[in-house]
Amino acid sequence: MRGEHELMGVHEGLGRYRALIPVAVLVALLAVPALPLRLPGLFDGPLNSPGNLQLLAVGFALGIAALSYNLLFGYTGVLSFGHALFFGAGVYLPTIALRKWRWDLGPALAFTLLAGVLLALAVGALALRTKGVYFAMVTLAFAQAGAVLVGKDPGGLTGGEEGLSLPTRPLPRWMVGVVNTDNLYWLTLAVLIAVYLLALRLITSPAGHVWQGIRENEGRVELLGLRPYLFKLLAFVISGALATVAGIVYLFLLSGANPRAVSADFTVTLLLMVIIGGSGSLWGPVAGALLYHYLNVRLTVWAGTPAVAGLPAILGQPLRDPLFIFGIVFILLVLFFPRGLAGAFAGRRLRPLARALGGTVPAREPRPRGEI
Amino acid sequence: MTAILETQGLGLRFGGATIVDDVSLSVPEGLFVSIIGPNGAGKTSFFNLLSGLYRPSAGRVFLRGADVTALPPHARVRRGLGRSFQLTTIFPGLSTLENARLAAQAARPGNFALWRGAARDRAALDRAAAALATVGLRGREGVPAGSLAHGDKRKLELALLLCTEPAVLLLDEPTAGVSAEEVPVMLDVIRRIRREEGKTILMVEHKMDVVHDLSDRVAVLANGALVAYDTPDAVMADPFVRSAYLGVA
Question: What's the complex ipTM?
Answer without folding.
Answer: 0.89
